[in-house]
Amino acid sequence: MLTVAVLISGTGSNLRALLEAAADPAFPARIVVVGADRQADGFAHAEAFGIPTFLVPFREFETREQWGEELDRQLRVWNPDLVVLSGLMRLLPASVVDAWAPRIINTHPAYLPEFPGAHGVRDALAAGVTQTGASVIVVDNGVDSGPVLAQERVAVLPDDTEQSLHERIKPVERRLLIDVVRAVASGELQLSAVASDAAAS
């Protein structure tokens, strides 16, 4: 059984979907802990499912590196097989990425490498494109630059706002995330092989 830690910053809608999927006895992964960099509303989902939580408040540390050291320490208490970034709005320090890679994955509301960064949906609208998408990637030390594990296109409608477009992307993100976690847990998807292929290319 694959053990998973999920890191959040906000409402945790992807976390909720993953918790619901993992509640099925046939699902080959279990969430063992949920962590956050601030007091996040998404903790309520963890509590509803009886999942332990931990908080490493970013603003209580002098540097990103010190925050990362404590985050890494908390993760090591649980020693998960996989770390999922689910709306964590902080770039992880290289020390954390290096310690857990390639076992850290993230979702992004764009069809990477298109529109990386914190405003993928807004940037897609500003560019006037007719389609964007959702992606699940391996986290590396760049900004949304890791190997793509799964992605799917989402149409941009003429009257879309940032909110309406994001609301249509979110269900795709959730479905892709669940599919990737299932594939990793079943052995169908080997993260180490994906990372090796990316490094060689």
Automatic annotation (TrEMBL):
Pathway membership, UniProt: Purine metabolism; IMP biosynthesis via de novo pathway; N(2)-formyl-N(1)-(5-phospho-D-ribosyl)glycinamide from N(1)-(5-phospho-D-ribosyl)glycinamide (10-formyl THF route): step 1/1
Active-site residues, as the UniProt record annotates them: 108 (proton donor)
Residues holding (6R)-10-formyltetrahydrofolate: 64, 89-92, 106
UniProt site (Raises pKa of active site His): 144
GO biological process: 'de novo' IMP biosynthetic process
SUPFAM superfamilies: Formyltransferase
UniProt binding sites for N(1)-(5-phospho-beta-D-ribosyl)glycinamide: 12-14
Short name of any one Pfam family annotated for the protein: Formyl_trans_N
Keywords: Purine biosynthesis, Transferase
CDD domains according to UniProt: FMT_core_GART (cd08645)
Top-level division of the source organism's lineage: Bacteria
EC number: 2.1.2.2
Catalytic activity annotation: N(1)-(5-phospho-beta-D-ribosyl)glycinamide + (6R)-10-formyltetrahydrofolate = N(2)-formyl-N(1)-(5-phospho-beta-D-ribosyl)glycinamide + (6S)-5,6,7,8-tetrahydrofolate + H(+)
GO molecular function: phosphoribosylglycinamide formyltransferase activity
Annotated InterPro entries: Formyl_transf_N, Formyl_transf_N_sf, GART
GO annotation, cellular component aspect: cytosol
The keyword Transferase is assigned to this record: yes
Segments forming domain Formyl transferase N-terminal: 4-181
PANTHER family named among the record's database cross-references: PHOSPHORIBOSYLGLYCINAMIDE FORMYLTRANSFERASE (PTHR43369)
Family of this protein: Belongs to the GART family.
Function of the protein: Catalyzes the transfer of a formyl group from 10-formyltetrahydrofolate to 5-phospho-ribosyl-glycinamide (GAR), producing 5-phospho-ribosyl-N-formylglycinamide (FGAR) and tetrahydrofolate.
Protein name as catalogued: Phosphoribosylglycinamide formyltransferase
Source organism (scientific name): Microbacterium laevaniformans
